[in-house]
Amino acid sequence: MHEPKSDKHGVLNARETEAAIFFVDAESGVIDDCNDAAADLLGAGRPALRGALWSAVICCEGGADSALMLAMTARVRTALPPFLIRRVDGGQVAVAGMLVPRGRGVAVDLFLWQLLDEGELDSSGYFGAADIVAVLGVDLLRYDQHWGTAETAQLMTGIRTGLLDIVRTRDAVAGPSGSTIIIILRDVDLDGARDISRALLSHLHRLQTDPAQPTARICVGLAQMASGGTALSTLLAANNALLQAQLGGGEQRVRAAADDDEKLSTGRALCSNGVFCDSLATVLPGLQASGEAAEISTPAQEPLVTPIEKGIEGYVGDNMEGAVDQAIFLSSLDMPVAIIGPVGTGKMYIAKIIHDESGGAPDMLIAIDCREFRSRSEANARIAEELAAGEGKTLVFKSPHLMNSESQLKLARQISSRTLADVSPAQYLPRVKLVALFPDSLEQLTRQGGLTAPLASAFAGYPIHVPPIRDRKQAVLRWAHKILDQEGSVRGRDMKGLTPDAEQAMLLYDWPGNISEMRECIVSALEKTEKDWLTPVDLGLFKGITPDGAPYLPEPKPFLTMVETNAAADDDYVPSALETLDVALGEAVHNLLTANLIRPLGAWTEDEVVLAALDRYRDDIPRAAEFLHTRPRNVSRWLPKIRSRGEERSASSLWQTPRRLLREWVRESPHLPGSPLELLQDLLIAHVIKQGDGVSAANRAAIMGVSMPTYLKRLRESKQPE
After folding, report:
1. Share of the chain above pLDDT 90, in %
2. Nearest residue to 318 (alpha-carbon basis) of 519, 471, 439
3. How would you classify the pairing of strands 78-86 and 92-102?
4. Which residues contact 403 (CB under 8 A, 6 or more apart)?
5. CA nearest neighbour of 276 among 83, 20, 145
6. What residues are paired with 224 via a beta bridge?
7. Of 361, 322, 334, which Cα lies nearest the Cα of 435?
8. Phi first, then psi: what are they for 499, rounded to 5°?
């Protein structure tokens, strides 16, 4: 073992280098000597370090000690990528370094450079347990006399400008650090962060950042703070993910030498540590808090946006796969008509075509919303009144399968006999057109027990099937343009259009809620951004988006797989809207607990139900309160808090599916005998209890969005075992 001598390595001291240097005996692992920078890095005196085992004083984290041990054992010159160590005072420091053998390998010099202290990062306050840290980096840059660090800085500034075009308002984007940029994605899980990252990369790829670097590649590393983790360890994990993405990008197994190999090697050497470069500490304060990122930079160029078609009238010229032609034909016949199609497909529009083509006056089209009947007597009285006064009118029964079965039978008898019920002497029905709107086939509704066979038979003569919007792809973008133009005008905003990725995502999305869901999606996007165009990140739609911006090509399925898929689709059982909603609430609880987050799902559920009820009754608070089984003043009292939580609800990726299903359920549900708020709270609390075995009662109450006493009261009322 070498004797420690204070002047032995005097040429390398803290005054001449910023590197912390440890002179280590390779056989024993003992530190022979070190410089002052090494003592400062670890927070210990040089005398205490001399003679100590390096593994005892250099406290590596996250498996870095194993990597360092292997490098020591190999005794080969090794560049050490960024890793974490603990100082004597417990502080966390990110370092990188180099291991250099000396004297035929009997000793090694360990050089460590401090990259970032946890205090520099935590003091910024922009990293949280619910955040995803994304590190975006550019590699495959060719460095030569025409391209250097100044040109890279200019390139990264342009990329940051492109990012600000598409990131959500609440997310944060730091300034460039070398060839990397830190992005904080708030309130999203890793799957959602992957979707957003693909959209970011596709958007940047379409911008073609710099023609001088045609092969430059942009990658993203993602990380979420682990249990017991720190902001610094999360940033390091995201940086390591970026470096691995850059290393694993090549498909070429055998490669001949190329003229630009030296340029590429220079670029890799200059960017080998990813985000942990000398400028990192200076750009961290540039991470803007929620809502500020978009204000600090004006895009240097107009984003790639497909202009919307303005002033689209009517039903955007959509023939609905022949439904319009059928309606025109049936308008001349004296027979009841069933219009069948999922929620939001435009069934009422088809009914209006029948009425208009038959020569009916605009005020003679009468919609009878069977969801609103609270009793058999109310249904019978309203139907009798409308039939008796129906001369020259078109009566449209919306969701008649939701009526009491006796009311259905009475209506069926009147249609079949063409006579009015409970009238003496007997009277024929007046000259009236009868149309019924159903969300599913008459056979399916009858099998489910909602629709009686006589009423189904009365409307079964010549049904019109309105296909879902997913089967009318030619109409998707025209609908999107019309809705965006309408909703923008309502808000006093001149919307320019949709990015190409947004259009592609809308075309590939199935739109289970059809046009109604599309409107809700666009309205929600407008609430999230102040830009005059929409991106897939705003819409929350990412299907088919690839990092290179290439068109989406679905993988062909083998024949047998297609047959099995079609067979499964023909299954007789179709879950009810409430069953589907129940499953979605359970998945939301599962995703919340998996991500180790606490969000007030109970309060959000009540918020969505109240807002959906107001939407159903066009902001008529008394009628909405009646549906909710509460008083109008309660609804008015709840609204300010509901609206204050709007951004939080819209921001949560795990809440978007339950949100859509809640609104659909409220829109199509009949009047319930009890409070829908209490019904849904019972469903949600059952999932919280079932899945939250390891969750404290206080956190369960927080998930329900209530105080502990209220939570315990609801627990007793719902009869759920604690």
Report:
1. 39
2. 471
3. antiparallel
4. 370, 373, 379, 411
5. 83
6. 132
7. 334
8. -70, 160
Q: Please name every residue paired with 397 in a beta bridge, in sequence order, or none if there are none.
A: 368, 436
Residue 378, C-beta contacts closer than 8 angstroms, at least 6 positions apart:
none
> How confident is residue 611, by pLDDT bands cut at 50, 70 and 90?
very high
Q: Are 715 and 611 in contact (CB under 8 A)?
A: no
When pLDDT is averaged across residues 264-279 and rounded to a whole number, the result is: 71
Render pLDDT for 321-348 as a digit per residue (tens, 0 to 9). 688 889 999 999 999 999 999 888 889 9
Cα–Cα distance list, 208 to 11, 34, 180 (Å): 49, 49, 17
For residue 722, what pLDDT is reported?
53
Looking at the DSSP bridge assignments, the partners of residue 221 are 135
CA dihedral sign of residues 12, 15, 18, 24: positive
Return the structure tokens found at 311: 């002033």
Rounded CA-CA distance 204/304 in Å is 10
Residues with Cβ within 8 Å of 80's Cβ and at least 6 positions away in sequence, in order, are 67, 68, 71, 96, 97, 98, 99, 112
CA dist 213 and 204 (Å) reads: 14
Contacts of 553 (CB under 8 A, 6+ apart): none
Neighbour count for residue 462 (Cβ, 10 Å): 13
Cis, peptide link before residue 640, omega less than 30° from 0: no
Cα separation, 364 vs 383, whole angstroms: 15
Q: Please choose, from the candidates 39, 13, 306, 261, the residue with its C-alpha nearest in 3D space to the C-alpha of residue 143.
A: 261
Q: Which domains does the chain have, with CATH numbers?
A: 20-116 (3.30.450.20), 124-247+261-295 (3.30.70.270), 306-314+472-539 (1.10.8.60), 320-465 (3.40.50.300), 559-718 (no CATH)
Confidence at residue 343, expressed as pLDDT on a 0 to 100 scale = 83
The pTM of the full predicted model, rounded to 2 decimals, is 0.76
Please count the CA atoms within 13 angstroms of the CA of 161 that sit on its side-chain side. 16
Quick one: tokens of 722? 């604690």
- Model pLDDT, residue 289: 46
Task: Look at strands 433-438 and 464-465 and give their pairing.
Answer: unpaired
Token pair in block for residue 231: 């902001």
Rounded Cα distance between 49 and 53, Å, is: 8
6 pLDDT band (50/70/90 cuts)?
very low
What contacts 24+ positions apart, CB below 8 Å, involve 697-704? 697/722, 699/598, 702/598, 702/600, 703/589, 703/592, 703/598, 703/599, 703/600, 703/601, 703/602, 704/600, 704/601, 704/602, 704/603
Contact present, 469 and 475 (Cβ < 8 Å): yes
Q: What phi and psi values does residue 256 have, to the nearest 5 degrees?
A: -85, 155
Pairing mode of beta strands 533-534, 365-369: unpaired
Q: Radius of gyration over alpha carbons of the chain, in Å?
A: 33
Q: For residue range 421-471, what is the model confidence (pLDDT) as tens digits?
A: 988 888 899 999 999 999 999 999 998 888 999 999 999 988 999 988 878
Mean pLDDT of the chain: 83
pLDDT at residue 660 in the model: 87
Cβ proximity of 385 and 414 under 8 Å = no
Residue 292: per-residue pLDDT: 44
